[in-house]
Amino acid sequence: xxxxxxxxxxxxxxxxxxxxxxxxxxxxxxxxxxxxxxxxxxxxxxxxxxxxxxxxxxxxxxxxxxxxxxxxxxxxxxxxxxxxxxxxxxxxxxxxxxxxxxxxxxxxxxxxxxxxxxxxxxxxxxxxxxxxxxxxxxxxxxxxxxxxxxxxxxxxxxxxxxxxxxxxxxxxxxxxxxxxxxxxxxxxxxxxxxxxxxxxxxxxxxxxxxxxxxxxxxxxxxxxxxxxxxxxxxxxxxxxxxxxxxxxxxxxxxxxxxxxxxxxxxxxxxxxxxxxxxxxxxxxxxxxxxxxxxxxxxxxxxxxxxxxxxxxxxxxxxxxxxxxxxxxxxxxxxxxxxxxx
Length: 341
Ligand code: NAD
Ligand code: UD1
Prior knowledge:
The chain contains 11 helices and 13 strands. With 341 residues, it is of the alpha/beta class.
């Protein structure tokens, strides 16, 4: 059994990926400092896979602890690095937190990779690196635009750090540029746990339907899109999780074409905010309270992936629908509400 380290493995995308790794026969060790997750997620994962992953509560910013971890845990065949801070607005207010948490942690991990000859490294990047794209759908060759937030900048710099490290070592790395992950595991054992008021669309929708929020604000209906609201490529988190297992296997089998590769992970389909709202109402039968308000500063108009490279080169394709994702997100929301009662 190959042992894989998953950093941030109790977080939203990490936990779903741990499940897919275990289901594919990998042994998993998780590092998480619980900064944006709960220890209960470990139980959720175990309820699905019937195998508890190894868990180390550790802050990757503490270099000595990272070094100690790799002394204790030998024979790691690959790393999937999710751990990071991810709130765009917070990154504008506290850039140093973002540069420390998203960049120092990557550097420390790569130093250990070099010291212990760990050569397979998957990194969580984001479609935010493309900014407002010149052409749609977005291919991986599209220019990386100047970042509009420290968070976005950390993803760009991280990709550069990986590329530079691959150039001088045996490291092989794949940066996966996620579009908009939504949904939850179909068992409702794991899902997204937004802290405080959700900034992202789908958790705000489910909390509004659950009565936690009074109404959803749709940020703008005067964009140059079919119905005036912004367009995004919403991808089911389980589809996304499966792509990590395929990418890791690609590196372990030495199937990569270059030492550093990037892939878009999306469905290839753009959906507007109002389409998501309608789809939620239709799928769940819940009426959603919403109003149109002003545009949100910093929002790009329209973003969706060209998935040809992921489909043909990586051999991965999103299979789940928007309805699957919204149904699972709603089931998850109801489950966490019940727990809180
Ligand atoms: P998340 O916050 O749910 O998960 C991140 C996990 O990392 C959390 O459990 C957190 O406690 C942990 N963590 C953070 N800093 C740590 C540290 N210093 N040491 C140890 N653990 C630490 O986020 P997510 O949505 O699962 O995102 C995972 C990755 O994907 C992040 O790198 C994020 O930037 C990237 N990403 C996310 C999205 C999205 O929409 N969710 C989109 C694009 C890219
Ligand atoms: C944002 C980040 C992106 C990050 C992603 C996941 C920006 C510019 N981009 O993407 O870097 O990777 O989150 O964390 O911040 N919307 C509403 N009402 C709401 C919430 C959202 O109308 O209450 C709209 C937004 O205007 C947007 C769409 O829904 O058009 C999706 O928003 P969101 O879920 O926040 O994701 P992004 O902005 O695409």
